[in-house]
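FORM 7B: Structural annotation worksheet

SECTION A. Query
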Amino acid sequence: MKSRYTAAAAAAVLLMLWASAPRRSPPSPEIVPSPSPEALYRLAEYDGRLAVFRAGSGSGPILVTSVRTALLPSADRTGLAEGIAAADDRELARLLEDLS
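SECTION B. Predicted structure
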């Protein structure tokens, strides 16, 4: 049952992020974008809960989950204290499921 709620929450997050993402026109053929080594998202603790931030934005969280970080294993809490990078929506969904 918890897994079903986690999957639904992850799907809702991805839908929200997709809907709020700025739309870009495709690059012209002579411009080839290089792959960015930077992550799109960062998972961290916010008010004692697992939260998702846009990487590098410096603003508040875009999502605060109901997961209490105090209940997570110490290795996960250490990772969240440093910030866990998620390169894309798929990795974000996997991390949210793993930490829930």
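SECTION C. Observations
Residues 2-19+38-99 form one domain. The CA atoms of residues 47 and 64 lie 9 Å apart.

SECTION D. Sign-off
Analyst initials: ____
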